[in-house]
Design a protein that fits this description.
By secondary structure, the protein is mainly beta. The chain is built from two helices and eleven strands, in the order ββββαββαβββββ. The chain has one domain (about 10-150). The chain is globular and about 45 Å long.
Length: about 150
């Protein structure tokens, strides 16, 4: 008889004290580790995904473009200082969704095939946009579907 190990739960930035500027992707996979993220702006939703975490830093697909500041992602969900689109109610307006898509595609995710390392862009997961809120963005990675996360505004 085998004994199942309990699921490990990891809260990302549980008390909001992480240094601003972090960005990562959780790739869905049966790992026994669940990552929990506060998201949806001031709605302060809590979402979770089992998988593995890949810190992305601020590199961009084109180094000459300079680093990507996670604040640019937050800005898409805000009107001025107010979190206007954080909770996903009604979705993002088309112009903001286009900005989000461009930012997501500017983020590289490394993968290894054989002995070769490759940088591949993330892609917005168009089939799961109903789950899209601030700091919880469905994406496609070289490793499979995932969620792009960063420090929620609240």
């Amino acid at each position: 008889m085998t004994r199942e190990r309990p699921m490990i739960r990891v809260f990302l930035d549980p008390d909001g004290t992480q240094a601003p500027g972090w960005i990562a992707v959780i790739v869905g996979a049966p790992t026994g580790v669940v990552y929990i993220q506060q998201c949806a702006g001031t709605a302060t939703d809590e979402r979770a995904l089992e998988g593995f975490l890949i810190p992305l830093g601020g590199a961009s697909m084109t180094p000459e473009s300079g680093p990507i500041d996670p604040a640019a992602f937050t800005a898409i969900f805000h009107r001025g200082r107010a979190c206007a689109f954080g909770s996903g109610e009604g979705g993002l307006p088309a112009d903001r969704l286009a900005r989000l898509r461009a930012l997501v595609e500017a983020l590289p995710c490394w993968s290894r095939i054989g002995d070769s390392d490759r940088r591949e862009p993330l892609r917005l997961d168009g089939e799961h946009l109903d789950a899209l809120v601030e700091a919880w963005v469905p994406v496609l990675t070289p490793h499979g579907p995932g969620i792009l996360v960063w420090a929620n505004c609240d």
